[in-house]
Amino acid sequence: MAVMDHRPTLDAIQRAPKVLLHDHLDGGLRPETIVDLARDEGYTGLPTTDPDNLRVWFEEASNSGSLERYLETFTHTVGVMQSAEALTRVAYECAEDLAADGVVYAEVRYAPEQHTRSGLTLPQVVEAVLEGFKAGERDHGIRIGTLVTAMRHQARSMEIAELAVRYRDDGVVGFDIAGAEAGYPPTRHLDAFEYLQRENAHFTIHAGEAFGLPSIWQAIQWCGADRLGHGVRIIDDIDATDEDAPVLGRLAAYVRDKRIPLEMCPTSNIQTGAAKSIAEHPIGLLRRLHFRVTVNTDNRLMSGTSLSRELHKLVEAFDYGWDDLQWFTVNAMKSAFIGFGERLELINGVIKPGFAQLKWRGARPLA
């Protein structure tokens, strides 16, 4: 009797309509663009001006297992993103690259405060990025929302939150805080989160990546986060000694019961030491327990990855089929910060039909 090959290939996954919620604009530049912008803007700090060698340098520098070391690579990408022209170009190319990977909806985040060294104001930074994304949407048929990010070790979160509200009708769909977690709890920015809640605005918080359960607890219970950026350490509140009957602690049960989305980035989590390997990544258990898990890229340049590659790694590690990949994708679309009607239209009009066609093509008998 013939059996069916349910394992999606990388090529097939690239054709699937995908959704990406956690992608950093300054972590996804093309090496060629970094070299061009460094020359145009007089930035002299690059370790090499050969694009191929530069790509290798970024990937190798990001494999230290330390979040702090990982974040150091952003010195160079942020360094060449200090003009309106550079920001617009990077945003446009981001839209182009994501669309080429089959992404139909993406939320891309960046920290406006990091792009003002050459005199740009915060609104000018936001407007330059929006210009690039709007052009990319028009030319490549992708829908992109942006998240403006505040750095958790700085004191400008209220300013950035106000930007999120000011530009929410122009393409900014939410707010985020990022940076090293240890020593910089999200509660330091409580006034910004309370302001966003009063304004009915959406926000996510980087939590549970390099730091443990207290970071997740504060992000949810004190700050009211709609989603968790990474949230990998929620696994610390699950006793999986009995693989057939894992026991959830109160925080893990709350996160699952409330359907709080987890923006997981497998390759990046390994690079920063939040997980040991793809096969040991908490995403496997969390998917089995039906947490609201989503799959993301984090920083495509540093991790040498794409959303298709992230999904394919999970296929190889956990023997996932099309139904699993569709589950991750629908989770992400349900969790997006755009309106319910638009989310539903993408799920029913693009994602489910796209996966149905791929499943039909992939269901071929093996001799």
From TrEMBL:
> Which InterPro entries does the UniProt record give?
A_deaminase, A_deaminase_dom, Ado/ade_deaminase, Metal_Hydrolase
Cofactors required: Zn(2+)
The cellular component terms of Gene Ontology attached to this UniProt record, alphabetical and capped at eight, are: cytosol
Q: Catalytic activity, per the record?
A: 2'-deoxyadenosine + H2O + H(+) = 2'-deoxyinosine + NH4(+); adenosine + H2O + H(+) = inosine + NH4(+)
Its recorded name reads Adenosine deaminase
NCBIfam families xref list: aden_deam, PRK09358.1-2
- Please name the GO terms of the biological process aspect recorded for this protein, alphabetically: adenosine catabolic process; hypoxanthine salvage; inosine biosynthetic process; nucleotide metabolic process; purine ribonucleoside monophosphate biosynthetic process
